[in-house]
Amino acid sequence: xxxxxxxGAVIVGAARQKHTLPxxxxxYSALEPxxxxxxxxxxxxxxxxxxxxxxxxxxxxxxxxxxxxxxxTIISLAPGLRFNGGGHIxxxxxxxxxxxxxxxxxxxxxxxxxxxxxxxxxxxxxxxASSVAxxxxxxxxxxxxxxxxxxxxxTCQNQDPLQATTGM
Length: 168
Prior knowledge:
This protein is mainly alpha-helical. The chain is 51% helix and 11% strand. It contains six helices and four strands, in the order ββαααααββα. A hairpin with a 4-residue loop joins strand 3 and strand 4 (150-156).
């Protein structure tokens, strides 16, 4: 019952190592003045770490329930696994998309955005418009739809991860 793509944990034989907080590729203060050191530290070392701790606890309970054949407990763990697993996946992606040095999108991404949205400005406006309705811990995403072979904007509630929720 493990995903084929793991972030922050390794499966070794039948034993599972616990998920760990990924290191940031920059210092907490690197995004100042846009994002303060305090906000980065709190969001990474406390907020993201809480998702990881709760995910590890839920996976331990899942393994125990599976070993006992306790289907009721297995089912009851699904929401916590989804929320905390999604929180871990989403935040791991989020940290990789921030940079103290700015950056430019690749030519391939630029070409796809222009083909599917007309311009970066149109894509950003559509993403902002769809994301503004998301409340709480929801996310707005620019994803790739493998079936249509196009970029697509999607929103996910709570900490639902994009791929597991939409297939993008």
